[in-house]
Amino acid sequence: MNAQFVLQNNLDLTKSNYSRIEFFILSLYFFTLTINKKKRRKKVKKTALILFISIALQCSKEETVELHITTSSDEALAHYKTAMTYWEVGDDIEKRASLDSAIRIDPDFALALEMNDVPDWLTRKSYQEKAQSLINTVTDQERLILLIREAYRNDNMNNALSYAKELVNKNPESYEAHNWLGIVQSDRNELVDAIQTLKKATELNPDNYQAYNLLTGHHIAAGGQVMLPEEERNIEQGLKYANELIRIRPDAGYSYHFKANCYRQAGEFEKAIPLYEESINKRRGKSSEGTALLVSGHNYMFSGDYKTARQRYGDAIKTARTKEGWFSLTDYLTWSYIFEGDYRGAIKTIKEAESKLEKKGFSGTPLLFRKATKSWQKFLCYAHNQMEKDANDALASSIDFSEKRADNLKDPLIDRSTKGNIAYNKAWNHTLFGRYDKAKLNLEELKMIQEKINSPTAMYGYYNLLGMVTLMEGKSDEALRYFEKGNPNDIYFLYFKALALKSIGDKIGARQILTDIANTNFSYWQLAIMKSRAKTMLESA
Length: 541
Prior knowledge:
By secondary structure, this protein is mainly α. Among the domains are: 15-60; 74-213, Serine Threonine Protein Phosphatase 5, Tetratricopeptide repeat. Helix content is 73%, strand content 0%. The chain is built from 27 helices and no strands. It has helices at 15-31, 38-60, 74-88, 92-105, 110-115, 121-133, 140-153, 157-170, 175-187, 191-204, 209-220, 235-248, 253-265, 269-282, 289-302, 306-319, 323-339, 343-355, 364-384, 388-409, 412-432, 436-450, 460-472, 476-485, 491-503, 507-518, 525-540. Helix 3 runs antiparallel to helix 4 and helix 17 (323-339) packs parallel to helix 27 (525-540). The longest helix has 23 residues, at 38-60. The protein is globular and about 65 Å long. Residues 1-40 and 46-61 have low confidence and may be disordered.
């Protein structure tokens, strides 16, 4: 027997019991006719009508509709439901543990297999392949979700959009269907459509945590997600969405984390501090405790207190329960040195993490991936500190590790992605050191790879880099045409777009971009490199 969980609305006034309520109220109304005293009858009559109208309005609202989930076990379903609540608030280890339990009880639980993104790539792939093999055993709703996820893995964002729209068309009253469509539209950088879709999702379910999460992020770049253009961002609106998160999940530290992020993005670091502390306290002992400490560290870093920031980063690293978590957290310590302009300090942290990889338990293909990443980070530092030989050597090491990993995995998608990344990084390296003809050759290679990907964002990297090369060659007008086709949210290339605008005399446009960069307070490597440069240019203007 398939178990399906379909939640009712909070009042439990569903279509099935509406008629009973209606009968009761109407009975009360007609009962007034038997009351002798006119005044009392009038009062009861009025009360009955008010009750009837109030409850009728509640009952006329569409009940909260959730997508059906196919499993052979109610117990497995309960574990899946628990996993999804963990997923909402970033408790990844707890999420995976609950999904593991669901799969152990029901090995053919398609959605549990699909959503269990375990760190080991081969295990994750086996789960995904099994989930896809079960696609004809689940509901049409689940089939479409599986197809959306598969389209993502195949870099086919056009198909992902098509499946998400079909999911909504077939389930127009499902808030979850709208969530899926909103996610896809966001990832395609179709933010006007995404916001409209996500707002509809909150109308269908006012307690829709995921939708409010995404809506908040579009205004403040939370978690590196796609953000609205600078002129359309609204911190106050972000705060309203974040308050909804707290209302829905006051027990979750993540909710306070997001509200704090709003204040951080607005540069109100003092207001953010108590909210980050609340987030830390509510996440003690959970897998996301490190994340809570990390984002608190970001707040101190952007306020200029690098010492306290790094203390928080160190505390975050100590909380890591997995080697993968430890590895991710070390990156931010590196970025903190780049934000401060200390590339040698950044390289030192990279080498320290690099030396611990095998001691932490990385081996085989996962080790190759981590070594490739750390070598790329060294390239990033050397190249932007104009240390050409060291940059070339670091990039060569990163490419070597990446190619060995791809050879080991023998997966066409990994192979294509690896070749694309290599072409991109070679072109970028050549550009940084003035080797523009060589850069163009690598860009042509990149173009041939990316053109085969069925996604509106596939060519972003190509156009951004081509714009940079063209700008360096002194062709600012042409460069701007390329930048317009690139990623509008990539701060690294937005900086060069500002240079191009300044070069053609558009000082206002350049200043707007530079101000946006200078006022962004979220930690990722692009901003680490460009924030201080943007500030310097603004001060010198």
